[in-house]
Specification:
The protein is α/β, with parallel strands linked by helices. It has helices at about 10-20, 40-45, 65-75, 85-90, 105-110, 135-145, 160-165, 185-200; strands at about 1-5, 25-30, 55-60, 80, 95-100, 115-120, 150, 170-175, 180, 185.
Length: about 210
C-alpha cells in the first residue's frame, strides 16, 4: 500500500510527510486552490526530498505543453490530471500519468484513459478536490483490486483503514484529512494516517508511479 500526501506547500511539511512515511508528495499547480504553489516554490521543496519519494504535480485543464514545461522545471516524477482533460490530452503527457475522476463515474469512461493510475476523488461540484468528502461507493467498488486504482476523497486517520479494507486500492491520497488549515499539514495527523494505513494494508499492488 502506497501513500501520497498532497497539497504540500512548504519544506517543513515536506520533511514531516517523509518522516511520517509518505511514498509521494503532491504539488498543486492550480491557482484557484488554497494549496497552490508556483513551479519555483515546488522546485525549492522538491530539492529537499529523498530521491525515492515521488514528486507528483497536480494540474487542472492545463495544455500538455505547459504541463511538460513545469514537469521539466520542477523535476516531477509523475503528473496528476485533476480536471476535465480528454483521453487525448492525457495521452499527450508523458507517463507516468494519473487521471483523477470525481464522483460517480462508469468504468467505460475510466478505461478510455490509458494512464498509469486512476485516482478516484469525491464529487466536488464546481471545485476540483480538497473538499473532505468521501469518494463514490459504487465507483470505488467497481475499481476495487485494479492495480491502477488510487483512492482519495475525505480520507483521514480515523477512516482510512476501513476504506482500504473495503475497496483495496493500490494507493491512498490524502490532503484535507491531515491538515490544521488548508495548505498547512499536521505532522501528528500525517503520522497517525500512515500508521492507520499500515494497520490495514493487505496484498501489495505495483506502485502506479513506477510505470
Amino acid at each position: 500500500m502506497h501513500i501520497k500526501i498532497c497539497g504540500i506547500t512548504s519544506e517543513r511539511d515536506a520533511h514531516a510527510a517523509v518522516t511520517a512515511g509518505a511514498d509521494a508528495v503532491g504539488f498543486v499547480f492550480f491557482p484557484d486552490s488554497p494549496r497552490f504553489v508556483t513551479p519555483l516554490q515546488a522546485l525549492t521543496i522538491a530539492r529537499c526530498l529523498p530521491s525515492l519519494v515521488a514528486r507528483v504535480g497536480v494540474f487542472v485543464n492545463l495544455p500538455p505543453t505547459k504541463i511538460a514545461a513545469v514537469r521539466s522545471q520542477v523535476g516531477l516524477t509523475a503528473v496528476q490530471l485533476h480536471g476535465d482533460e480528454s483521453p487525448a490530452a492525457a495521452h499527450a503527457v508523458p507517463n507516468p500519468v494519473i487521471k483523477a475522476f470525481r464522483g460517480a463515474v462508469g468504468l467505460d469512461k475510466i478505461h478510455q484513459y490509458q494512464t498509469a493510475g486512476y485516482l478516484l476523488d469525491a464529487d466536488a461540484g464546481s471545485r476540483f478536490g480538497g473538499t473532505g468528502r468521501l469518494a463514490d461507493d459504487s465507483t470505488a467498488t467497481a475499481l476495487a483490486n485494479d492495480p491502477r486504482f488510487m483512492l482519495a476523497g475525505g480520507l483521514s486517520p480515523d477512516n482510512v483503514a476501513d476504506q482500504i479494507r473495503r475497496y483495496r486500492p493500490s494507493a491512498v491520497d490524502v490532503s484535507t484529512g491531515v491538515e490544521t488549515a488548508p495548505g498547512q499539514k499536521c505532522p501528528q495527523k500525517m503520522q497517525a494516517f500512515v500508521a492507520a494505513v499500515r494497520s490495514a494494508e493487505g496484498g501489495a499492488h505495483a506502485w502506479p508511479l513506477a510505470a
